[in-house]
Amino acid sequence: MVERALSFGSVAETYEEFRPGYPAELLEVVMAYAGQPIRTALEIGAGTGKATRVFAQGGIAITASEPDAAMLAEMQKHVPANVTTVLAAFEDLPLESSYDLVYSAAALHWTKPEGRWERMSALVRPGGVFASFGAPIQLADLALREAARAARAPYLADDGVPSPDGTAADLPMQWPGTELQKSEWFTDVQQSIVEHRLTMSAQDYIGHLSTVSAYVLLEPADRDEVFRLVLDVLPETVELDAQIHVHLARRN
Length: 252
Description:
Layout: H1 2-5, H2 12-18, H3 24-34, E1 40-44, H4 50-56, E2 61-66, H5 69-76, E3 83-87, E4 99-105, H6 116-123, E5 124-134, E6 138-139, H7 142-152, H8 177-182, E7 186-194, E8 197-201, H9 202-209, H10 213-216, H11 220-232, E9 237-241, E10 244-251
Parallel strand pairs: 1-2, 1-4, 2-3, 4-5
Antiparallel strand pairs: 5-10, 6-9, 7-10, 8-9
Helix pairs in contact: 2-9, 7-11
């Protein structure tokens, strides 16, 4: 997992170009849950700042942390002045400050499980909010999804990231909600979905895949062949299901 977590720097500019951003509705969901003003926030694993820019629009003073120097450098090109950037993994963040909100966009699964929630509780002020969200982007057409899976199968059986605690995908509460429910430091755990659909060219979809860790770690020749095979089964334009899975909890 560590190798996959630190694989994105090699494709930082491509990540910024092809990874979709987040809709403003996501910020609205988090603010509604908070039920009070959020003035300060810490972001864990900010990447190139896709979510950072949405939350910064809410007038929040954000500290955006990112463990990969290349990703951090790309983020610094795009975030506004109310964002402070920090080169650090979650496990290395100092615990001297606490925030109204701590959030992670498609990055929490890269953190180490040992002591995760005790450390998180030290970063969220009492009564503050923790939020985790991600968009497992998939082809909306099930037949196309299966065709793409079959095309990549000789080189890559699965391009997703397994649930860190092994929670089955068909259970009502998904990770990290499952862990938050067991945590002594957090309460009022909620799970919701923000619907999000995208339309893009097949070429841009391949560009998106090129930023997914499972593909980044393939040998270059194999990666090129996978993309050729997948592109062959796709129409010129594809619709993507990019619904955002949101987990929220309140610090005791």
